[in-house]
Specification:
Layout: E1 12-13, E2 21-27, E3 33-34, E4 52-58, E5 60-69, E6 81-88, E7 93-98, E8 109-117, E9 126-133
Antiparallel strand pairs: 1-2, 2-3, 2-4, 5-6, 5-8, 6-7, 8-9
Length: 139
């Protein structure tokens, strides 16, 4: 059986039976939240790296833009598929693949889900975070 791996450095955590949480950083000086996490200080106020700390971000937000990709030659995903920009409730904007065949509208509530990407001849199996439109009961 092929081992499944997460991205390095870690971008998210997934507890069994739970939705993924994204791993970011928060500035102790100005409160700015960044994703993906990095160790070069605050992008907003310039605080030194020691003034930023790891923070867990809920995988929920609002759809701000999206597009359907009709031609794609990269491995791991077949066209057509949808990519979008989600403004997380904690502030940062993330770009991601959107799962599901649901009609999308700007302003839709979105939620993260962990997707297992199977191994192929040219890559190993992995888990990645994608987003889906939140059900009405999640809103």
């Amino acid at each position: 059986m092929t081992e499944t791996r997460s991205p390095a450095p870690p971008l998210f955590s997934v507890e069994p039976g739970e939705r993924p949480s994204l791993l970011g950083r928060r500035c102790a000086d100005c409160g700015y939240v960044s994703f993906p996490p990095h160790d070069f200080g605050c992008e907003a106020c310039g605080a030194l790296p020691a003034r930023t700390e790891p923070t867990v971000l809920a995988g929920a937000g609002v759809l701000r833009s999206f597009a359907t990709v009709h031609r794609h030659s990269g491995p791991g995903i077949a066209a057509p598929f949808v990519v979008g920009e989600i403004e997380l409730d904690a502030g940062p904007m993330v770009r991601c693949v959107i799962e599901g065949e649901t009609a999308l509208r700007i302003g839709d509530r979105m939620r993260a889900l962990a997707c297992s990407i199977p191994a192929s001849a040219d890559r190993e199996a992995k888990v990645e975070v994608r987003f889906e439109k939140a059900a009405e009961v999640d809103r």
